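Sanity check

After download, print the first record. It should look like this:
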Amino acid sequence: MKIKLYQVDAFANNVFEGNPAAVCPLENWLDDHLLQKIAEENNLSETAFFVRTDRNIQLRWFTPVEEVDLCGHATLAAAYVLYQHCNSTAPSVIFDTKSGQLVVTKTATGFSMDFPISMPQVVGAPAALLLGLGKIKAETVLAGFDYIVVLNSVKEVIDLRPDFSQWLNLDLRGVVVTAQGSDVDFVSRCFFPKLGVNEDPVTGSAHCELAPYWGLRLGSSVLCGKQLSKRSGLVHCQLVEGRVILSGNAVEYMPGEINV
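Expected structure tokens:
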């Protein structure tokens, strides 16, 4: 069986920027074990699979280790493939996912994605979380679907060298460190060692937690976040009635075909 595969750099204006995702359009759903093996073989932070129905588009995301409930950059990449390779012409596409319906709209500068917000709440930090920070001290620790660690400066975010062994057994998805920015509203780095992704380059879903936190703290509904990974990337955020609109561009790196 041959399956088309596209590798797309999301939240990027040029190849080798942003976060790479693999996207596989399917005629119908394959066995979950096979989907997981394809994601493992791709060895990217996410592989997206979608199936078009008469009404909407069913979308799922897999890391090299397991399926996840929400992924921003691979959703953007899937929308790119629909418009570039699957003859989508409507102003927006609607994805049915484990996190409900997600609407992605094509814009003059890229794509905007309508996602649910997750307002993180202040929590007591697990010992393993703090140990993984090493000498870096947390200003505040919150929990959404990840632990959010607020640091005192951009420099601390850049300088952090986590001990991933401490974070493998945390109960939430991963750890996001963040600080107020200088040239942008906030900066972040995102770590998901239990999903086989020690550091994710640009994480759209994390901005569903970061945008409402920084929006409340900075008193703004329109923000720009910069993820300070090696590849880096900008995520533009707008808070609208319990949702967050995440905007960015995507660039195709490679079309291909896999044999399974």
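If your output differs, re-run the checksum step. Summary of this record's structure: The radius of gyration is 18 Å.
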